[in-house]
User: Fold this.
Amino acid sequence: MHIGIIGTGIVGVTTAGWLQRDGHRVTFIDPKEAGEACSFGNAGSLSPSAVLPVAMPGMWKKVPKWLLDPDGPLVIRTHYLPTVLPWLMQFLRYANEKEVTRIATAMRGLLLPVFDAYLPLLQRAGATSLMRRDGCLYVYSSRQSAQRWSWGANLRRSLGVEMEELDSEALWEMEPDLRGLFGFGQFAPENGSTPDPSGLVKAIYRQAMEDGASHLRASVTGFRRKGGRIDAIETDGGPDLDVDGVVVAAGAWSGALARMLGTRVPLESQRGYHVTVRNPGVSLGRNVMAVEQNIMVNPMSMGLRLAGTVELAGLKAPPNYRRAESLLSVGKTMFPKLNGADYSAWMGHRPCMPDSMPVIGAAPGVENAWLGFGHGHVGMCGGATTGREIANLVAGRAPLVDLAPFRPDRFRFGRAA
Ligand SMILES: Cc1cc2nc3c(=O)[nH]c(=O)nc-3n(C[C@H](O)[C@H](O)[C@H](O)COP(=O)(O)OP(=O)(O)OC[C@H]3O[C@@H](n4cnc5c(N)ncnc54)[C@H](O)[C@@H]3O)c2cc1C
Assistant:
């Protein structure tokens, strides 16, 4: 079949790679170059352990305080509050033990095959060095403070995540530059990361293009229907593109496209920031999650990247780089040696559903359209598996992952069904 893939982020390019393995012809439609939107500047964690949703039990109690703190982990721009309030109310409905356990169990199924789903694509692209399998450290100031997160850590363990406890000496032996603020760690050996998220997307994209894909540099504006099928994709870049099928993988911008296909989903952008520090004077051997600070630190090929924070301000408001700078200030308290003289700052739109689970499946009521978006904080972890599973759906093969929790129609009229 000739399949139009809307979006050249991690989900779009891995979907292309997997579809091509089945012999399909692929056309990307995206005005941007590959790996230049949210997949550009993320923290690069590839973690089968990243199963916990954003809305955790008891979170609702913290929201009022966060709203008043312009440098807090969650900021809502005042003008956007009325727009985002219904989404936020839905989001908080999942912040209880029963829902979190259900969500984490479903996410474990999606994230566990992360390396299996990337490997064939990266091998073909000659880019396996863009995937590191050297574990990840969750670090805390002390064992006592880690207790505050023990419910989530135990849930992870109950789902099979191995987490080795490290006292201060063992932690500093593994990562000498964590000496200082951090006195306790949990090492998750099954995790990994990429040293260059955008490079990883571009490598898979380049291989897809070499394998016969085309790229129409335009925005999708609509779909032409014939009976229950889509027979062409309308864009702002010339004549309609005739297709036999379409995959929506447009990240945080997918909501409007899904709606044009008849599926309403409550998709919201959780804007996140990074600073990437060149010549940081700090050396880490692997990805580190500073849990109390809510910042992920990853040694990348272009410098030390500190990434995190959530800002609700929609897709249109300009970035507030003060949030990136505050990542740098917190970074300096975490690593007293950090030389922050030379850094770049970035903001990206995480595509987020209220239940922190992506939408993966056939578009209801359309015979030849599939949806793959909404991966929130774990799109790099779940991207390749999503691509593999969409290829299975297109082929009519049984999925290798239980996709029922991710079904597109789990929300009716934009609300939880
Ligand atoms: C600060 C930060 C840190 C993060 N850290 C991690 C991490 O460590 N690990 C992890 O797994 N995830 C992480 N994430 C999340 C991850 O980056 C995202 O989930 C993922 O990149 C989303 O990929 P995507 O392919 O869905 O969307 P994107 O990469 O955003 O790509 C979407 C593409 O669709 C295109 N598009 C949009 N509308 C249209 C249209 N109408 N027509 C044509 N094209 C269109 C856009 O131009 C864009 O190129 C992080 C995110 C942030 C912000």
The chain has a mean pLDDT of 96. The first strand starts at residue 2 and ends at 6.
